[in-house]
Amino acid sequence: MGSRKKEMAKRIKEAxxxxxxxxxxxxxxxxxxMRYVVDLIRGMEVGKALATLKFxxxxxxxxxxxxxxxxxxxxxxKNDRKAENGELYIxxxxxxxxxxxxxxRPAPQGRGYRIRKRSNHVTVFVDAKTKEED
Length: 134
Known about the structure:
By secondary structure, the protein is of the alpha+beta class. It has a single domain (20-128), classed as CATH 3.90.470.10. It has helices at residues 3-16, 31-41, 46-54, 60-79, and strands at residues 20-27, 88-97, 101-106, 112-117, 120-128. The strands form two sheets. It has a three-stranded antiparallel sheet. Strands 3-4 form a two-stranded antiparallel sheet.
């Protein structure tokens, strides 16, 4: 590996030390349904977001709660301490489309209707609120 690549790899590695994220891949719900729930918690403080997800009636909220808890645990593990109440917030969260399974459903007169079983990938970034002192 050349020196330029080594330097870039070192910079990327240092940058990843301050990024606290969690991913949940191949969730068997459509991305559109998951985005409805994601939009509810975008930018929230994590305690409030977990409470919102717990009482949300959408099925996607269970999967989303799992990935938010994982992101909190990643932050705690990288910082070697427990997160205090009101300290963490969801800085970025997005849903990408995953693989689509194509299936056929029998239809009248020998035809077949195509069914698309969609999946998605959820990525959550959490960050600590900075206390700015004047």
